[in-house]
Amino acid sequence: MLGLRKEPPLDPQVLEEAAEWLMRLSERELSEQERAEWERWKVSSPEHDRAWSRAQLLQSKFGGLPPSLAMSALDRPNSPERRAALGKLAILLALMPAGWGSWKLAQSQQCSADYRTDVGQRRELTLADGSQITLNTATAIDVMFDDRQRLIHLREGEILVQTAVDTAPLPRPFLISTRQGRMQALGTRFTVREVNSRTHLAVLDGAVSVRLAESRQTPPLIVNAGQRTDFSSQTFGDLTPTDRTLGAWAQGMLMADKMRLADFVAELTRYRRGFLRCDPAIADLRISGAFPISDTDRTLSMLVHTYPVLANRHLRGYWVTLSPA
């Protein structure tokens, strides 16, 4: 049985041109000369045709430009806001057709959550009971406290939790829920991250009891200080020693100790808008050090000056490929 043929990725320059035309069409009526130029561009190469097909699909899904980008299209041609929107639009075209669905879901999750952070942001909260929650990049949570429980629902992203002793007349359990299960804090400090349909739990102090969402017969798993695990809605992963640097992001740092460059790039991507790719030729290069996540351009500069790596930038820096120096 023959598999489906996978299309090669589009050139970043072509994606940027398609994004520019799409933005221009959305903001005003083109002159006859501009329309003729646009038509010539569309038919001048197969890549242009593919890029514009994605632009049309994006238009049909959203009925025009995505709302968060549409207002930026009205800014001055060289304004930072419009340039940033152009880069985001080019990246969205690169992800089409699969990317629009996850983008739309992420927008929905973020907008309706009680508390949220954008890409590259962190946020510290002190809850009504004195517990402290730190939200990592692109994170959304709901807080539901009542007479019976103190519940945090993690919609997406990652949080660092430091629980406080409940002073209510009847002490209430402190719970964290994800799509994969529910965790009860037993006087503790821990991180919770949801990624790829699994919840990752690392306990720094105290202990956490975990129940699976779709396997009620499975006994709860107790994860103690210094341990970590991950779980789906039906099965637990192994208990392994935790790395206390896992919470370093709360201080604005990404810690690496002989980490594969490919894995480092995957982590850094969480804090950066756009595409960040690693050439397979240097994927196994080992990286060590402390890198700032609030300034990913500085982190890339540190890599380039420390290791045999080049950072090739496209789409005004929204598309970066790391390649051998």
In the CATH hierarchy, the architecture of the largest domain is Sandwich
Mean pLDDT over the residues: 84
Estimate what percentage of residues fall within beta strands: 25-35%
- How many distinct beta strands? 18
For the record, give the distance between the C-alpha atoms at the N and C termini, rounded to a whole number: 41 Å
- What is the oligomer described by this structure? single chain
The level 1 CATH classification of the largest domain is Mainly Beta
Explained architecture:
By secondary structure, the protein is α+β, with helices and mostly antiparallel strands. The chain folds into three domains: 12-107, no CATH class; 115-245, Jelly Rolls (Sandwich), CATH 2.60.120; 252-324, Phage tail protein beta-alpha-beta fold. 31% of the residues lie in helices and 31% in strands. The protein has helices at residues 12-27, 32-43, 46-62, 67-70, 80-95, 98-112, 261-269, 296-306, and strands at residues 115-116, 123-126, 132-135, 140-145, 150-162, 174-177, 181-185, 189-195, 198-205, 207-212, 221-224, 227-231, 240-241, 253-260, 275-278, 286-292, 309-314, 319-324. It starts with 11 loop residues before the first helix and ends with a strand. Residues 114-208 form the FecR protein domain.
